[in-house]
Batch of 3 targets.
Target 1
Amino acid sequence: MAEEERIIREDARYVLGTYVRPKFVIERGQGCYLFDTEGRRYLDLVGGIAVNALGYGDEQLSRVIAEQARKLIHCSNLYYTAPNVALARMLVESCSFADKVFFCNSGAEAVEGAMKLARKWAMKKFGGERAGFVAFTGSFHGRTFGALALTDRKKYRMPFEPLVPGARFARFGDADDAETKIGVDTCAVIVEPVQGEGGVNPAGAHFLTSLAEVCHRRRVLLIFDEVQCGLGRTGRLFAYQHFGVVPDILCLAKPLAGGLPMGAVLANRRVAECIESGDHATTFGGGLVVSAAAIEVLRRLKRPSFLASVANKGEYLLDRLKHLKKKFPDKIATVRGLGLMVGVELSFEAAPLLRQFRERGVLVCTAGEKVIRAVPPLIISKRQIDRFIHVFADILEKRQAAPEDQAK
């Protein structure tokens, strides 16, 4: 039995079946490429779902992780350790609004932490009257009970209801509708400056500016979920920096520790001062190895030259895709995105194209039923972007020649 076949069969036997995976096994990576157990190479525009900002096999990042692992891997948050303090300082000093950081292990945990901070703030300011949240259509904030309650995906929510109560959904892009949804029981509004799973939808400066004004006037907190769009992905270190709006709380995760599990909640002083010892905790959050990795990642992501390169390549990618849209106007409905976070909305179901990309040595993912999403490592080259465009064009040309053969 081939190694690939053995692993797939044992996965089916031993691993809880929460994922539908294609029938190949990834073994290693280098730069922007992944390699499977059969030696096939794939140009990766998934990037671990916007996680692997520095690509694969980065020598300096691997060295930092190994050096810290040799010193100490874990000792818990019962004691002071240097890496997480250094990382917290870097994050606060890189933000225009944040004063304190809480470290956790994932984006969903960051959202859960933000929800707890918001409720504690509201409890201190208003007693027990405000515990609800306003989120938006198309949102995705995670799979835990609190984060899922703020996620506008019925198929994700329904099997696990009742979820955390008190969430209302406003139309994404409509600050006036958000204001109608804010009630006397609302403590915070949460929004993604660029929606990821919802189809790669940038919020826009006017919407976010108006939303911030509404939150200020109604005395509720504003939470930005930048789990997917933050940390260099949009060509700025934080996505909110594009819009001239700052939140009260910011959620980060995916690329923060270079592929190791880490999330962070950043809060301004008026929120942070409401938190007391014992209000929240985590066994693994801000551990030594992940913090050391995150310091190295953040050190490189925050360089102006690196961010300028991301912005430039993002503009190049969008421009190439818009030219592709002109060539296939009946196949591509919309191209949208910011930096190296791009969505191509098709006029048909996107999922069948994943196999066609894969057969041509390119990995992409979807964001909703009709959107092909590209969130590659931020080190991707224009030559590699050209390869993606060439493959995309080839797939659309063949579909145009044989439109009935959609599933192949």
Note: The chain has a mean pLDDT of 96.
Target 2
Amino acid sequence: MTLNVTEIFRHPIKAHGVEALKSVALATGKCLPWDRVWAVVEEGRTLDANAPEWVSCRNFTRGAKAPELMAITAEVDPAAGTISLTHPRAGSITLDPSNNDSIAAFIAWSKPLTPANRMAPTALYSVPNVGLTDSSWPSVSLNLHSSLQALEAQAGASLSPLRFRGNIWLNGEKPMQEFDWVGKEIRIGSVRLEVRERIERCLATTANPDTGERDVDTLKALKTGWGHQDFGVKAYVLQDGTITLNDQVEIL
């Protein structure tokens, strides 16, 4: 069966909003542009903004700890350098990450979305030319709809792709076949990638991206159905190019 691109997503602020794209230009050794450029530091974490470096997700507020964050949508204005965010309960806000007052307003806006028993958001963090993905190397995540359909059947519930915060979604192929691609190269449109790792999932995927409420135990479904909590894979861009909706995928 032919593999095709069905959706492309980016998440400019880690765990704080998703934006759908029709096409994207990828660069060798880089994350998807405007994807996880920033993350929100949680209270009690000491990160040096003057000497920033990649750190793990445990330093940041995210959907695993604050499920309401999963309901945020985002829209980037590359020319203005701003990000507009919308949440069904919190409303909308436009953030200019270069402006301290704007950052403070964003932190205040996001704070009520974090449970009272969790560490509050305190600051916006970024590392020049480094995406704050869950891998220490610049990754682009790939997911299969056939795997999602199999997980839906196991869970007994409809599941939005947005639960999994993936970059590129593909149709075709048998469930969980993306795991067979680890260690192989693939071509999507004019981009060549090396698939490096499976993605181990967390509690963020149990939250409904429309409501921000935990409603399906996706982790139990994965464990029961397949004996692990992996879903999707991470890839490294080997060759510049553009990916567009409906582009075909070739396993090299």
Note: The domain at 3-9+21-30+135-251 is CATH 2.40.33.20 (M1 Pyruvate Kinase; Domain 3).
Target 3
Amino acid sequence: MNIHSLDATTLAARIARGEVSATDALQAYAGRIALHNPVLNAIVVPRLEAAVAEAEQADFARAAGAPLGPLHGVPITVKESFDVAGLPTTLGHERRVGHVAAADSVVVARLRAAGAIVMGKSNVPVALADWQSNNPIHGRTHNPYDLTRSAGGSSGGAAAALAAGLTALEVGSDIGGSIRMPAHFCGVFGHKPTPGLIPMRGHGLNPDAGPADLTVAGPLARSGADLELAFAILAGADEASGTPWRLDLQLESRTSLVGARIAVLSDDASFPVDCAISGALTRLAARLADAGAIVTRDPALPLPSRDIYRLYLQLLRGATAARLDDAGLAEAIAKADALDPADESYGALMLRYLTQRHADWLKADGRRHRLQQAWRGWFGEYDALICPAAPFTAFPHISGIPKEQQRMMVNGAPAPAADA
């Protein structure tokens, strides 16, 4: 049996039945890490010595008949941006070398309470601000399927580790594709939940700061069942913050696709999708129809995609503007003031929205809430929407080119990377 090929749900069940020990599982993953991680550079902060002791304790607890959590004895890794007590949290910043977290983040504490054993932390880009996972402290993570290509970012180390069988489960964060893009590039599962459902305390450079707008935590895994299990463990109010709410999700009761109303968006006039992806979605639409679903191809959205894109960038850059110091903000304002008013490129929009007035952000926030209401109505007509995770597949490593100037090949032609 190849332990590394099992998903976390199956591995947890086998450990609980005594078919596999937590120690054997950890040794299997440690062997995979020793063999493949030197090339992939996915796991960059090891914690194997402590994990060995915890695996032995997990086996003792099971043998003694102690209550077992849903991830009892399962070896996992977590994104470097989440605090793990005794390990550094740098987000790739050289100035953070030597930092050691004093306590676990909420998500790590919940995973450990469920019985998971943390083997280490996975790689990220500097400030979690790229679609590649590369930084001056730990270097670059490579895609397990093609070492010349990106594993994605910012949860790139997480997705690469899962795809290569170096870990059973991962947890990442996402504001601009940071779970979805790496999962897409590496062929694994990722879930970006509704904001607020999973606490963010202990994520980022300041463990006590409130969560940034649009930023969420979510699991990455090798199966949909693992996403469901991990989400059930991670979601819920942060008790320490005094948030007075209780999660009560209404789960899907449907057991058949017959009659399900499914919309499939395979391409977009404003943001063309590479035929390798749109073709897969076309084939999926046909399979869904054969299974009895009522499939609608390329439906009208509640708001045109170009307008959704602009609104999202305005909210996104409003959220990330707080990362700028006074000098950086002054520089951005000067550049924004010098822009051609007709310039609608990603770089121009980014500068304008980084320096927008608070009143303009409030208006955008109002448009966001109206759009949410429109989506609720839209999903009264459809049960699900399936669409591309990105307009292109994993791209070759890029160095020295600012994000706003990067181009990706889509159907043989260059397209702005920010179209993702």
Note: The domain at 3-241 is CATH 3.90.1300.10 (Amidase signature (AS) enzymes).
